[in-house]
Amino acid sequence: MIGELQSKPLTNTILIGLGTNGPFSQSQFDQIMHIIGTKREVYFINTNVDQDWQEEVNDMLSSGSKRYNNVHVIDWNNYSAGHENWFWDGIHPNIQGRQIMVDFVGRNIIADEKY
């Protein structure tokens, strides 16, 4: 993902969904923010996965949003908690879950826009 950020033109609003395939470090977060800078709004969708690293990643994103004024965390983990019917396997959103996730993410970004 970091290589893609370096090789493509970036828009003023960037959405990053970490997914559920593994941990994400503070160093990786800082690398991404170094590439993106502070002039763009950056939205991270936190992770919802029953793995020991979930809380560490979500806490790191939360603390990162306090260090960078242009970083926002979309709390998919909290919003989707208790909705097992939104997932195929408890991890990957099914069709209904994807629709709900897209709506939730969109509403968060729109609510945060500065006019």
Automatic annotation (TrEMBL):
InterPro entries: SGNH_hydro_sf (IPR036514). It comes from the Bacteria. This is SGNH hydrolase-type esterase domain-containing protein. It comes from Lactobacillus rodentium.
